[in-house]
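Researcher: I'm comparing several assemblies side by side, and this is the next one on my list. It has 674 residues spread over two chains. Same procedure as the others: predict the full complex and return the structure.
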Amino acid sequence: MKKFFKSLLAKYILIILTALFIIQIGFFVPAFLFIFTSNQEETERQAASIEEQWHNEASDIERMTKGTILDHFKQWKQQYPQSSMFWVDNHGNLSAQLDVTAELPDEWTPAFTAQFIKERYDEDPFTVIAFAGNNQNHGFIVFELPRSALSQDTNQFSQLGGRTFSIIALTIILFFIMISLLFFRGIRKRLVALQEAMEIRDTDRLPVSIDVKKNDEIGQLESTFNQMVSELRESKQREQEEEQLRRELIANLSHDLRTPLTKMRAHLYSISKETLSANGVQAVQVMEEAMEKLDRLIENLMSYTLLTARKMNYKPESIDIIRHLRTSMASWYSIFEKEGFEIDVELKPFNETEWNVDPLWLDRIIDNLLQNVLRHAKSGKFLSVRTEAGKDYEAIIIADQGNGMSVHSNGKGAGIGLTIVDLMVRKMDLEWEVESGHRGTVIKIKRPKKLS
Amino acid sequence: MIHILYIEDEVEIGRWVTRNLMEKGYEVKWLKSGEEIDFYMINADLVILDVMLPGLDGFSIGKRIKNTSRDLPVLMLSARTAIEDKVEGLSFADDYITKPFHPDELAARIKVLLRRFNKSDEHIHLHHLTIHTKDLQIINRDSDEEILLTGKQYQLFQYFLRHLNQILTKEQLYEAVWGEEFLEGDKTLMVHIRYLREKLEKDPAKPQIIETIRGIGYRVKQ
């Protein structure tokens, strides 16, 4: 229940209920005030006051002539422009009248008088009948006023009240709209802030936890998001640990395989120092070659396992490709030179020499390709490493003049080496193509130019 | 006499390497773990370290050595061939050789390291020149005269000698000698190489001592 009161739903219901309540009050209170209370009572109060004043003033008239009576009437006419008045003297004659519109007889019989009184009692026009003078010998004077005129003042007041009422009602509605807007703007603001916070990434490229301020629905969403982030982080950590374990395992395995290989080589070296027959020397040489091949195979197999399981560390960075290639060639040059190769290195700077690649991977690609040249294209005695800038690409070209890849070479087994090259090239968003014939092999590692 | 400190837990390999290095004229102290290293380190000119060792591993020992004596060359000799291991090793060590290795390669790398760290007192013969590495005295054997170099020429030639037989790129040379980043098209290095050749070569137009390796850089080859 406590949770409910903290929720947005509760707040929303509260706003709606408050609005309904205010609207109700806004409608009914003015209605009561203006329609029932003020209007009716005011009319009656005014009528009573007119009646009393008419009676009083009638009794105060001293000389009962037509002139004085008419003067009296005119005075009243000023105050009540819509009124009409007449005088019936003690003989029943209609002696004076002012603005009377109704058909009145010139002589008033007692019967007509009685009927007139009966007709006018509590009817429209509002009628006051008073004896003229301070005794009853001068007949009576009658004051008529349409009831609409009587309530004119209060009507004016009522109209004014109506306007006030409209303004109040409008204000209340505007107030309600404002409150609703503020409420939704608050929600929207928090949702946008949440979305922005969700897009922020930490150094490990995972989202950052959000500071939970309120315990409502959005607050709960934030908590759930935080929980998700922490689960994601845990899972990533687990994954990293597994990766570490696997790498450790492969490293250990590689170590365990190489240790006996090293021992074999040690003993072979010792044998080679002995005096051997020609056959013996040849056997030692073959064994050495086989051992080197085994060493390379272990290395490639380990890399391949890591690569295909996507567990090989990949850290791309922006490097000067020409400089990197030159350094790489500096270490390979002597090896090819020793084998009697003609080496042609021509590295011209590209327009954009910075490539975003993992330098270790790039070294590995170059090593694998050059090793292949060394092993399979020895017959050509030629190696060319150069750069080429095409219309929509920049490329590193490694070419030899060996027998080509299709021709079976003595040291076959390059398959895994080239597979590693292929995996690495593609992972680094580069392309590569191989042209191979009996006159040699040309390998292009291309970087497509970005469209500007 | 050059003292080599060698740490290897594998008995067969350890015995073989020790014997080989001793045959090449080095004095070798072989330890099976890194426990007593602090004692033997004082006399050593070079340390060869295996990675997988009982107790402290080779990486930790290597880092400790480099922390106390930066001038002692450390060579890692390991069966761990993963790129990550090499990268970690080379973050402090001066060279990293993977097993199985050829004893001649090991000997060559030791030589390079000793030269780089100025530990060897050699007389290098380069064509008509004899160079005493300790004080970099260059003698022209034809005329029996000493060749004197200026500051930058001296630094440049010394860098070549420390990396004897290695091809050095323009960037490498410039950055090692001038200590600034090499900018493509800068002629400073070329000019200094020309001066150096004028002093060292018999025929500077056909240099024999400082070779130009087209497209890559330069090399001083013994």
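Model: For your comparison table: Residues 103-116 of chain B form the longest helix (14 residues).
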